[in-house]
TrEMBL record:
Residues 216-474 form the YjeF C-terminal domain. This is Bifunctional NAD(P)H-hydrate repair enzyme. It comes from Streptomyces noboritoensis. Its EC number is 4.2.1.136, 5.1.99.6. AMP binds at residues 386-390, 417. It comes from the Bacteria.
Length: 476
């Protein structure tokens, strides 16, 4: 599991640790880790041209101390001080002692740099880069140098993943002590490049429950439902799919395709696209409806391609877990969802989330963490917000928000969400909690999409058929 903590928590842990260490020792740990990581990226340190962008806080201090270490190993290191009279005094002194030089002209040194250390702001920065830092950041990005963000890319919001102004796009980020939510969540995540975590001994001082977490293969492997000798198709779970319409029969087929790969023992389809479903997947149990007469299911999926067809409230009346997606989300009444005793999983994309929250799509996309938490609280349900970084939140901030680390932007194609809803519903029927079902489904779906795309456009059908490979990856 990759876990992330908000700034307040990181600072509290740092204070505890600093109290046990000699003066400045923690910053030296950070700088040593940063210098080692940077040296690895450079390959050859001797003779390399490095530029340190140093703001007025400790982030600049880290960068200056790391610059000093690189200078001692023979790199030519220049510093661009964003606020010369407020640069970290000890860091700057160490930098100058090691042979580092303060640049006369920032643009000259940036144009010739091999690598830039971005130490403008770290966890103390808010509101995007200040105007005086913007041209320097742009020159760094416009150069041929590798840009390495110190702790986090300057200008992003560490806690929320928002980018409220200009930020410096890094090729890599070296972060200290713990991941921060903004390193995992878009839009900020898009500025980080590859993220490396430097251990500075913070872990024992951090709480056991983080703010965000990202599953990895081993976590998913533990959560996947696997049949045993005692299993039969009913014990493995039956998932019911209420989807498709005369206008959108394909949504039914794709949701069923996802469900067939999700580990449930059987898939029931209820609706007008039964013939299309059977033609494609003869293993499906089909009926024309209504859902209450379809036979026993352990979880329902309702919504993909339904159009205006009614039936969502009928499904929500069932006393089993229900996943509501797509058309099922339109005008969904929070009171109806909150009153349910069984779990509910809502799976909106940003546009659907925006409609439910009464805000613009852009607002949801710029503040994904806040939006998913707010929706979960409003509906008293687990919410999976789809998009460039898919998030899964439980209501009441009970558990860390899950951030999906897999996926590809090739997934932005019609029908891929239908596959996801069927897959997540199948995992619900197999007995996973809404939070686990949503996050495991997003993980497999993203992995599968990478198989299906492999550098070229994918189709939603191919995402479904590649799910088998995604399961195998996770077990391998
Ligand atoms: N306290 C410690 O011992 C440690 C601190 N660490 C470093 O310290 C950093 C946090 O340091 P600080 O709390 O001093 O804060 P930062 O250095 O992140 O930023 C605060 C400074 O940046 C300026 N600033 C704020 N917003 C800005 C903006 N939008 N554009 C330009 N300048 C802006 C402020 O005037 C302030 O001087 C961490 O990110 C990490 O790099 C690490 O070295 C780990 C150990
Ligand atoms: N830019 C993106 N990067 C990664 N994944 C994306 C991106 N855009 C969409 N996706 C994923 O693609 C799927 C699209 O679902 P959705 O919007 O419901 O489409 P549809 O309704 O056509 O099936 C979701 O799983 C979503 O997370
Ligand atoms: K930084």
């Amino acid at each position: 599991m990759r876990i992330a903590y908000r700034v307040e928590t990181v600072r509290a842990a740092e204070q505890e640790l600093i109290a046990r260490l000699p003066d400045g020792a923690l910053m030296q740990r950070a700088a040593a880790g940063l210098a080692a990581a940077t040296a690895g990226m450079l390959g050859r340190v001797y003779g390399a041209r490095v530029v340190v962008l140093a703001g007025s806080g400790d982030n600049g201090g880290d960068a200056l101390y790391a610059g000093a270490r690189l200078a001692r190993r023979g790199a030519g290191v220049s510093a661009v001080l964003l606020a010369p009279d407020r640069a970290h005094p000890d860091g700057l002194a160490a930098f100058l002692r090691a042979g580092g030089r303060v640049a006369d002209d920032p643009y000259d040194v940036l144009a010739a740099a091999d690598l830039v250390l971005d130490g403008i702001t770290g966890i103390g920065g808010h509101g995007g880069l200040r105007p005086d830092a913007v041209p320097v950041a742009r020159a760094a990005r416009g150069s041929n140098a590798l840009v390495v963000a110190v702790d986090l890319p300057s200008g992003i919001e560490a806690d929320s993943g928002e980018v409220l102004g200009e930020a410096l796009h890094a090729d890599a980020t070296v972060t200290f002590g713990a991941y921060k939510p903004g390193l995992l969540v878009d839009p900020a995540h898009a500025y980080t490049g590859a993220v490396r975590l430097v251990d500075i001994g913070l872990e024992p001082h951090l709480p056991s429950v983080p703010d965000c977490e990202a599953l990895q293969h081993a976590d998913v492997a533990q959560l996947l439902p696997v049949p045993t000798g005692e299993s039969d198709k009913y014990r493995r779970g039956v998932v019911g799919i209420v989807a498709g319409s005369a206008r959108y029969p394909g949504a039914a087929v794709l949701a069923v395709a996802g469900a067939l790969h999700g580990g449930a023992g059987a898939v029931r389809y209820v609706g007008p696209a039964a013939d299309d479903v059977i033609a494609r997947f003869p293993e499906t149990l089909v009926s024309a409806g209504p859902p209450a007469k379809a036979g026993r299911v352990q979880a329902w999926v309702v919504g993909p391609g339904l159009g205006d067809a009614p039936g969502v409230e009928e499904v929500l009346a069932a006393d089993v877990p229900v996943l509501v997606d797509a058309d099922g989300l339109r005008g969904l009444d929070p009171a109806v969802v909150r009153d349910r005793a069984a779990p509910t999983l809502l799976t909106p994309h940003a546009g659907e989330a925006a409609a439910l929250l009464g805000v613009s799509r852009a607002e949801v996309e710029s503040a994904r963490l806040r939006s998913v938490r707010e929706l979960a609280d409003r509906y008293g349900a687990t919410v999976l917000l789809k998009g460039s970084t898919t998030l899964v939140a439980d209501p009441g901030g009970r558990a860390p928000v899950r951030v999906n680390p897999t996926g590809t932007s090739w997934l932005a194609t019609a029908g891929s969400g239908d596959v996801l809803s069927g897959l997540a519903g199948s995992l619900l029927a197999a007995g996973l909690t809404a939070r686990d079902a949503g996050s495991v489904a997003a993980y497999l779906h993203g992995l599968s999409a990478r198989h299906a795309a492999n550098g070229a456009p994918l189709t939603a059908s191919s995402v479904a058929s590649s799910l088998t490979n995604a399961w195998r990856d996770v077990y391998a």
